[in-house]
Amino acid sequence: MGDAHWMSLALGEARAAMAAGEVPVGAVLVKDGAVLATGRNAPVAGHDPTAHAEIAALRAGARALCNYRLDGCELFVTLEPCAMCAGAMLHARLARVVFGAADPRTGAAGSVVDLFAKAELNHQTAVQGGVLALECSELLQSFFRGRREQARALAQPLRDDALRTPESAFDALPASPWPEQQVSELPALQGLRMNYVDTAPEAAGGLACLCLHGVGLWSHHERVLIDALLAAGVPRVLAPDLIGFGKSDKPKREAFHTLDWHRELLAQWLDRLAIERVLLLVAESMRELGEALAGAAPQRVLGLLIAHESPAPELEAARRAPFPDRGYEAALRVFGRPRKARQVAPPEARALAECAMGYFDAK
Fold first, then answer.
1. 74/126 Cα distance (integer angstroms)
2. Which of 35, 129, 279, 338 is the most buried (most CB within 10 A)?
């Protein structure tokens, strides 16, 4: 197998890092024509400045061989190694290092410095760059573009007639395992900010499942369903916090929350993401909105599945978090206040995921 094959596997690790909110860098360690170990960036999740993709792969490979020397091994990484990783590779005595995109700021394989070219060192490792460079660069650019857009959205001033739940209200809850993003430039938003989860933000259009949470809930309560969909093979899952719920802005006036307005907002958002076909998975308490969205765009909507919610008392803290006081509750007063937090139970989530894949397979 050629270098491009191994680099494509490293790209898969990079995408997994991106889905976890890390800078998308992935690595694959190869010995005797087979994968020995893999690694992906995880310094944020691990609170560890050394948790680069290359270090993770080297550690896993050393454990697999029961040896800190990795003689005869080749490392494929999507981004030019930094000085730390280059030093570790030399200490491991790798035979060869292959990278994808160059790093003009911290690259230690020729961009800023070239540690591998130091003849004074007691080991020389062969280096090759530029393998699938375009794909590796585009993934990184997509990640940082999303970061910039998110920063702009976070810096957006709040409208006078709306409220925004402080981020501190969500500190006690586990962080989303998938990228959260904000959008504010859609015409229907009129300057408000909408938060959403996108499990594959680097994807360009195509197919997706859209999960609409129930009344009083938000994307946090869709995690069981999202996990089941991804495990079943759904390529992309979207889960917005409807305006008035979750981490999205909350207009103070109840008159803001009309069915037509929410439907139009979701349609504009799908247009922005270039989603061509979408399967709707809608919580029972938001059935009317799901039906309105499906009826307005039959050419786009593959189908509509209703997720029947079960009481989940352990989610009460998450239900209350977006609504610190009654001033934030205009949407609840319009859509109806749930008595208890509810979510899709795991068995039904799996059944919905299998049904969803039936729609995608048919497409």
1. 9
2. 279
305 closest CA partner among 314, 322, 293: 293
Per-residue model confidence as pLDDT tens digits over 111-153: 999 999 998 888 899 999 999 999 999 999 988 887 877 776 6
Whole-angstrom distance, CA of residue 40 vs CA of residue 14: 6
Burial category of 9 from C-beta neighbours within 10 Å (exposed 0-12, middle 13-18, buried 19 and up): middle
* Beta-carbon-side half-sphere exposure of residue 280 (alpha carbons within 13 Å): 27
As given in the structure block, the two tokens for residue 18 are: 């991106």
| Torsion angle in degrees (nearest 10) through CA of 285, 287, 288, 292 | 150
Tokens of 111: 């961009």
**Could you read off the pLDDT of 312-329 as tens digits, one per residue?**
776 788 888 999 999 999
CA 69 to chain centre: 35
Concatenated DSSP letters of 97-140? EEEEE--TTT-TBTTS-BGGG-TTSS---EEE--TTHHHHHHHH
Our answer to whether residue 264 is catalytic in this structure is no
Strand partners, 183: 194
Output the six-digit token pair for 345.
Answer: 């139970």
Asked if residues 201 and 142 have their Cβ atoms less than 8 Å apart, the reply is: yes
Task: List the strands of the sheet with 237-240, edge to edge.
Answer: 180-183, 194-198, 237-240, 206-212, 275-283, 301-307
Give the three-class secondary structure for 309. Answer: coil
Left if phi > 0, otherwise alpha if psi is -120 to 50, otherwise beta: which for 287?
Answer: alpha
Extended strands (E) in the chain: 26-31, 34-40, 73-79, 96-101, 126-128, 162-163, 180-183, 194-198, 206-212, 237-240, 250-251, 275-283, 301-307, 310-311, 342-343
Whole-angstrom distance, CA of residue 313 vs CA of residue 316: 5
Beta-carbon contacts of 36 under 8 Å, excluding residues fewer than 6 positions away, are 29, 30, 60, 61, 64, 65, 73
Residues 173 and 221: beta-carbon distance below 8 Å: no
Q: How far apart are CA 245 and CA 319, in angstroms?
A: 10
What's this model's pTM, rounded to 2 decimal places? 0.62
